[in-house]
């Protein structure tokens, strides 16, 4: 049985959404949509709270003369610049040309560059990892090398053969593992949801 | 003892980052430069065209002037990988006389959607064929709400918005959904929250390669109707669209540069596998042992 108010709310909301999913009823749809709008509001509140704490934390770092005050300053300046361009009177929000410029000419290339550097960092990690001479690292690197060879962008008969083997390995061994994972995750989610709905705590096991 | 030696190796070894970076950039530059001359030997497009055929079959079943909803939730880090495929899908849909609406459930996706809508407008796509629903907050909760209730369009007089309102104000009004995935949000959320509520709505997914193993099972079960989730499938589809339209392939991805990068990676892995690390690390350990 539920032991507290949050538990009761979770059970009621969970059952409502579950029944709405199964039964077609306009009233149920309206009620569940109202609940979902509350969830959206909660998420928005959590987002604003998180952003506020971020600004407070980095603002304090700047004011206190922290060794990382330069990075904190850059973060605050970036946040203020994005907010200012998206919220000035008459702004079109995310569709405003200034915001679009900041995203496409500044933010997107910066983030893409960081992702591109993963290539170098991964290679460095490979060399450092092999210094530990662990069996797991050897297996992982062997698998990585096989995948790279299968995906080599070669033409001709060799390229076709590599692509065929790559497709087979994706559809059969890798696909089997991921299907198993998805099924396992689905079962676990269902079990966990049932435990929450029934207010079963770990102590009850 | 072995563990101690490993720790010593780890501590002593320092990558020569600048030299590495220069060599890598030089190799990639050579790859890009020679890409044109070896294009016959190299091929980025997947020779297996099954993913392209599946996508074309889905588009071929669409009615005249279809209403298309693009769920744009890529992220800034992986979007450059899937951008050519998405642009090819949009070009293909526009060639089918489609009316396109975009909606985003993540802030990054919203920024990317705004940029794509502006690009389409700059390319001369008529305003009455484009609609931007903007950002819908709440992630999956927002997605569930959008099934029956999309936000009001910014321009009420937009023909796409009017058509959606006429057919029912939600995702159900659309003929097809194209889902652009990223790290945070993507086709899996749509399969779980939308496909279960609207099983007749065709879903096409465009996602980065890392999502391919997770999404491929949905394709086999029919919960996704088509999927582009590898660079090679993306390139094959973009080439297919370019051939049909009689335009040049605008993927901008060089197979030679990719080959060089892959060979560098193979070289590093092979060397690390054989030697377990750079020679200077072993020399340092030997010195330490001697001391």
Give a quick account of the main beta sheet of chain A: strands, pairing sense, barrel closure.
Answer: none
Strand elements of chain A, count: 0
Q: How many helices of chain B?
A: 12
- List low-confidence stretches of chain A: none
Counting DSSP E segments of at least 2 residues, the number of strands of chain B comes to 6
**What structural category arises from helix and sheet content of chain B?**
alpha/beta
Please provide a brief summary of the model:
Chain A is mainly alpha-helical and 205 residues long. Chain A has helices at 5-22, 26-63, 69-87, 97-131, 135-150, 156-197. Chain A has a domain at 1-87.
Break the fold down into its secondary structure elements and pairings.
The complex is a heterodimer of chains A (205) and B (291).
Chain A: H1 5-22, H2 26-63, H3 69-87, H4 97-131, H5 135-150, H6 156-197
Helix pairs in contact in A: 1-2, 2-3
Chain B: H1 2-12, H2 17-34, H3 50-60, E1 67-72, H4 79-95, E2 99-104, H5 107-122, E3 130-135, H6 140-148, H7 159-167, E4 176-180, H8 187-195, E5 203-206, H9 212-221, E6 226-228, H10 231-245, H11 255-275, H12 279-290
Descriptive labels:
heterodimer; A: 205 residues; mainly alpha; 6 helices; 0% strand; extended; B: 291 residues; alpha/beta; Rossmann fold; 2 domains; six-stranded parallel beta sheet; 12 helices; 54% helix
What does this entry look like structurally?
- The complex is a heterodimer of chains A (205) and B (291).
- Chain A has a domain at 1-87.
- Chain A has 205 residues and is mostly helical.
- In chain A, helix 1 packs across helix 2 and helix 2 (26-63) packs across helix 3 (69-87).
- Chain A is 82% helix and 0% strand.
- Chain B folds into 2 domains: 50-245, Rossmann fold (3-Layer(aba) Sandwich), CATH 3.40.50; 254-291.
- Chain B is built from 12 helices and 6 strands.
- Chain B has a 6-stranded parallel β-sheet, sandwiched between helices.
- In chain B, strand 2, helix 5 and strand 3 form a beta-alpha-beta unit.
- The longest helix of chain B is centred in the last third of the chain and has 21 residues, at 255-275.
- The interface between A and B is large, with 62 and 70 residues.
């Amino acid at each position: 049985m539920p032991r507290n108010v949050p538990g009761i709310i979770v059970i009621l909301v969970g059952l409502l959404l579950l029944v709405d999913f199964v039964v077609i009823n306009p009233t149920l749809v309206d009620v569940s949509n109202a609940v979902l709008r509350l969830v959206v509001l909660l998420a928005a509140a959590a987002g604003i709270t998180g952003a506020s704490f971020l600004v407070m934390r980095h603002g304090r770092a700047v004011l206190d003369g922290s060794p990382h005050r330069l990075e904190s300053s850059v973060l605050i300046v970036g946040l203020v610049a994005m907010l200012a361009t998206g919220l000035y009177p008459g702004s079109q929000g995310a569709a405003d040309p200034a915001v679009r410029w900041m995203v496409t000419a500044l933010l997107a290339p910066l983030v893409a560059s960081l992702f591109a550097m993963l290539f170098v960092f991964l290679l460095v990690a490979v060399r450092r990892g092999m210094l530990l001479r662990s069996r797991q690292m050897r297996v992982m690197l062997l698998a990585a090398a096989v995948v790279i060879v299968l995906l080599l962008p070669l033409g001709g008969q060799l390229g076709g053969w590599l692509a065929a083997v790559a497709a087979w390995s994706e559809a059969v061994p890798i696909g089997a593992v991921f299907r198993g994972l998805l099924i396992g995750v689905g079962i676990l989610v269902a079990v966990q949801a049932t435990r929450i709905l029934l207010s079963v705590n770990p102590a009850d096991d | 003892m072995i563990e101690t030696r490993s720790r010593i190796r780890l501590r002593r070894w320092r990558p020569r980052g600048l030299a590495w970076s220069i060599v890598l950039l030089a190799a990639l530059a050579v790859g890009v430069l020679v890409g044109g001359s070896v294009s016959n030997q190299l091929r980025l497009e997947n020779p297996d065209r099954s993913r392209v055929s599946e996508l074309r079959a889905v588009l071929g079943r669409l009615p005249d002037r279809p209403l298309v909803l693009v769920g744009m939730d890529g992220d800034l880090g992986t979007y450059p990988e899937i951008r050519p495929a998405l642009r090819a899908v949009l070009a293909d849909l526009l060639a089918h006389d489609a009316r396109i609406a975009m909606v985003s459930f993540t802030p990054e996706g919203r920024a990317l959607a705004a940029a794509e809508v502006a690009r389409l407008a700059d390319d001369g796509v008529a305003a009455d064929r484009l609609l931007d629903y903007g950002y819908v907050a709440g992630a999956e909760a927002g997605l569930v709400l959008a099934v029956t209730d999309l936000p009001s369009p910014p321009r009420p007089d937009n023909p796409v918005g009017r058509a959606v309102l006429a057919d029912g104000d939600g995702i159900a009004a659309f003929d097809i959904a194209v889902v652009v995935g990223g790290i945070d949000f993507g086709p899996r959320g749509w399969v779980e929250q939308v496909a279960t509520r609207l099983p007749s709505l065709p879903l096409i997914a465009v996602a980065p390669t890392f999502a391919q193993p997770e999404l491929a099972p949905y394709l086999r079960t029919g919960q996704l109707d088509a999927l582009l989730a590898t660079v090679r499938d993306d390139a094959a589809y973009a080439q297919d669209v370019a051939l049909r339209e009689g335009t040049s392939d605008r993927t901008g991805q060089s197979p030679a540069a990719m080959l060089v990068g892959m060979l560098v990676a193979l070289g590093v892995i092979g060397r690390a596998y054989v030697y377990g690390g750079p020679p200077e690390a072993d020399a340092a350990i030997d010195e330490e042992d001697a001391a």
